Amino acid sequence: MRLLIVGTLKGQLTTATKIAMDNGATVTHAEDHEQAMRVLRGGKGADLLLVDVALDIRDLVMRLEAEHIHAPIVACGITNDARAAVAAIHAGAKEYIPLPPDPELIAAVLAAVANDSRELVYRDDAMARVIKLAQQIAGSDASVMITGESGTGKEVLARYVHSRSARAKRPFISINCAAIPEHLLESELFGHEKGAFTGAIARRIGKFEEATGGTLLLDEISEMDVRLQSKLLRAIQERVIDRVGGTKPVPVDIRIIATSNRNLADAVREGTFREDLLFRLNVVNLKIPPLRERPADILELAQHFVKKYAEANGVPLRPISAEARRVLSTNRWQGNVRELENTMHRAVLMAQGDEIGPDAILTPDGDRLDLAKTPPAVAHATMAAEQVTRALVGRTVADVERDLILETLKHCLGNRTHAANILGISIRTLRNKLNEYADGGIPITPAGGPGEHSRLPMIGA
Description:
Elements: E1 2-6, H1 12-22, E2 26-30, H2 33-41, E3 48-52, H3 57-66, E4 73-77, H4 82-91, E5 95-98, H5 103-114, H6 125-138, E6 144-147, H7 154-163, E7 172-176, H8 182-190, H9 207-210, E8 215-219, H10 226-238, E9 240-241, E10 250-251, E11 255-260, H11 264-270, H12 275-281, E12 284-287, H13 295-313, H14 322-330, H15 336-350, H16 376-392, H17 397-411, H18 416-423, H19 427-439
Parallel strand pairs: 1-2, 1-3, 3-4, 4-5, 6-11, 6-12, 7-8, 8-11
Antiparallel strand pairs: 9-10
Helix pairs in contact: 6-7, 13-15, 17-18, 18-19
Keywords: Activator, ATP-binding, DNA-binding, Nucleotide-binding, Phosphoprotein, Transcription, Transcription regulation, Two-component regulatory system
Protein name: Sigma-54-dependent Fis family transcriptional regulator
InterPro entries: AAA+_ATPase, AAA_lid_NorR, CheY-like_superfamily, Homeodomain-like_sf, HTH_Fis, P-loop_NTPase, Sig_transdc_resp-reg_receiver, Sigma_54_int
């Protein structure tokens, strides 16, 4: 967590600095806007700006926007003047806190910005295997590719890998390749020199240099333009970058973690992603299963989010009722952990009584999740698939095979030839299986259809 404090406030911010550092933040000071911009352009970067409300916050916001620097601003002042707070929020600040600072309030603001509450919560064996692999490779400098559907927690896992590496005390810098226009992404990644293009009013250090010594997360890398991919490949291979408009290479020391919700092998075949870049990034692949394939994680995460949002909203911590747990467990969660988190946030706010019941498990539109309108065919197919899956658990392969053969034979009205074709086995294999079942006393559908006989042939016939 990197904090930039802008202003002096007669020494009041000294206390804020100590509180921030006690909470693990790296603190840099700037007396005014100009000095703050020099710090941000120079590569130190900031995850949060704590700004004296007496300064022109709107002007600072406009300067940040003009140079495409993204960092939230929290205004602070030595007064509880409501008008000053409202003016700061209107000017672009995310929050206003009075000084002298309250230690718990500063800590809460830092935690919210750093998103430290995004804990890695899991119980399912499928996720445990991914975490075990992450632990094994975290201490290396190998590039890591994290794949999975949107909302599965790819960035959370990336931060986990960083936190367990030798670079844990160095910066973790994240950039969303899908959220930044193509013509700006190169400058964001590699920085630029003054005058390199219209609007480049000063040298700007990019994310590669900001992350030096630490980890750079390239989120949704599949959305990066192929032309820029070649420059990225050189940076990874040679550990040097070229600023836009620069004349000499700049060495960097970083670990790369990339994420994608697309199949990059398909993107390679389509010509939208370089194969050599994929090989460089995909030294280790951490594939996060969708939440529907991690059933044991659903209730574990749900309880985690209930506790989190009960505390955040100052409401009683209610247990999840048995019926609500059933609703949660049987939902498909197409939006994965992100959808579950939003659902439990709503549940915490809407719940009444002593428990969180199914009436509080709602869709964004306010419908009960278990009563939400679903196309009948989809609902029937989903239910049928779940019933089949549950019916298979705990049974042997031999038992499942026997029932499949007998049910197929029944469906074919006893016609062995048709049944064998459907099953994809030879008529001889089918007859051997049926003789085996008949010897065990299991009723067999009588032979029927053209060319079929009512009596089972002898084994080997």
